[in-house]
Amino acid sequence: MAGCDCPGGCKPDTCSCNYDYRGLGLEWLEDSGFAYDQNGRVTRPNNIGITECNILCKCSMECQNRVVQRGREVKLQIFMTRECGWGLRTLEPIPKGTYIDSYLGLVITRAEAERREAEYRQSGLSYLFDLDFFEKSNENSMNCGMEKTLEALELIESPETPDSESAETQHPALLQKKRRRATRFGNSRKRRAKGPFTTGNGRGQRNQKEVEALSEYEEIGEFRVKQEKVPFGYEEVGQSSRTATRNHSVERTSEVSAAHNLERSTSTTPEDYRLRSYSLDSKDMGNVTRFSNHSCDPNLDIYSVVTGSHEIFTLALFANRDITAGSELTFSYSGTAGLERAKEKKKQLKNRKNKKGGEDTELFKCRCGTTKCVGYYWN
Ligand SMILES: C[S@@+](CC[C@H](N)C(=O)[O-])C[C@H]1O[C@@H](n2cnc3c(N)ncnc32)[C@H](O)[C@@H]1O
């Protein structure tokens, strides 16, 4: 993690936290200013990550490049909707581009998320959110923003110093690219661990008994990290692979599932790649955003925002249009680029319905009631 030291305050052209995408030849992103305007409203599309100034920067909290970390300012209310259970609405008008709040929850491995998803199907209520922004950027051509950034960054990365930890190589796009490159050149040092409960800290491997003997929590600086047994074990040799999220406040998540050995492993197969991803679960820990329902015509968009460590990004919700007081606040569970996937899912579910009686079809039936409703959502 690196901080900026801008004399006289941060300026988009000189602040090292603001990567100048225009300089990389990305004509599609005309605005090379900060991600936020003077009023703190987001100006970029949400298919590209935002890096805010952080705790190591010399600028104050008033800096134009700090919005999400200042927290929620909009008055919200949880209410009972007609069709979708509890929902979230605004008590005041919200101008387009305004930051609403961030989707918070317990960080768990993808494998654990899959286990919980099966459980949540019984109740029909799920609070899981996949942290797959970079994963989807790689595999989904619709998410061209990050893909183009990756291509452009490839041009400036120095081949002599691929492992340098400079500010530039700490950029999430580059971190991801480094991982991709490691995969491409087959220099992965990951190998499958011996047992299902084995964890590794990068310097050695712990057996199941040792894992059970570990204290439940570790205090690591400002982070509170919970060690968890993970159903799938991978050992990463030679790299520390700890992950954590900020303990923001009582309302915010204070626990983190640290599946040490899944983090930073370089993928060898699509299955490895999938399993090393993370998800958020806000069922037991989270904030008001956990009550935000899905809509096929949402008034909020989700942005991946880095406010500190690049290990875990924040899922920040911004208004994608002017919103009137009293309106329900919704986002697309399928992602901005996910409508096609939702339609595809609809087809698959219909086929399954013909074979099995259609329980799943009902489970993901969308009740957003908008004119753009595609009938089903997929989360
Ligand atoms: C993150 S929670 C949202 C809050 C939830 N409505 C509640 O009462 O706690 C997601 C769950 O809300 C319901 N839901 C959200 N959007 C929906 C929609 N468009 N159609 C049907 N159900 C929806 C589903 O049960 C889904 O699993």
Automatic annotation (TrEMBL):
<protein>
    <submittedName>
        <fullName>SET domain-containing protein</fullName>
    </submittedName>
</protein>
<keyword id="KW-0479">Metal-binding</keyword>
<dbReference type="InterPro" id="IPR007728">
    <property type="entry name" value="Pre-SET_dom"/>
</dbReference>
<keyword id="KW-0158">Chromosome</keyword>
<keyword id="KW-0949">S-adenosyl-L-methionine</keyword>
<feature type="domain" description="Pre-SET">
    <location>
        <begin position="2"/>
        <end position="71"/>
    </location>
</feature>
<feature type="region of interest" description="Disordered">
    <location>
        <begin position="178"/>
        <end position="209"/>
    </location>
</feature>
<keyword id="KW-0489">Methyltransferase</keyword>
<dbReference type="InterPro" id="IPR050973">
    <property type="entry name" value="H3K9_Histone-Lys_N-MTase"/>
</dbReference>
<feature type="compositionally biased region" description="Polar residues">
    <location>
        <begin position="238"/>
        <end position="247"/>
    </location>
</feature>
<dbReference type="InterPro" id="IPR046341">
    <property type="entry name" value="SET_dom_sf"/>
</dbReference>
<dbReference type="GO" id="GO:0005694">
    <property type="term" value="C:chromosome"/>
</dbReference>
<dbReference type="Pfam" id="PF00856">
    <property type="entry name" value="SET"/>
</dbReference>
<feature type="domain" description="SET">
    <location>
        <begin position="74"/>
        <end position="334"/>
    </location>
</feature>
<dbReference type="GO" id="GO:0042054">
    <property type="term" value="F:histone methyltransferase activity"/>
</dbReference>
<keyword id="KW-0862">Zinc</keyword>
<dbReference type="Pfam" id="PF05033">
    <property type="entry name" value="Pre-SET"/>
</dbReference>
<dbReference type="GO" id="GO:0005634">
    <property type="term" value="C:nucleus"/>
</dbReference>
<dbReference type="GO" id="GO:0032259">
    <property type="term" value="P:methylation"/>
</dbReference>
<keyword id="KW-0808">Transferase</keyword>
<feature type="compositionally biased region" description="Basic residues">
    <location>
        <begin position="178"/>
        <end position="194"/>
    </location>
</feature>
<feature type="region of interest" description="Disordered">
    <location>
        <begin position="236"/>
        <end position="272"/>
    </location>
</feature>
<dbReference type="InterPro" id="IPR001214">
    <property type="entry name" value="SET_dom"/>
</dbReference>
<dbReference type="GO" id="GO:0008270">
    <property type="term" value="F:zinc ion binding"/>
</dbReference>
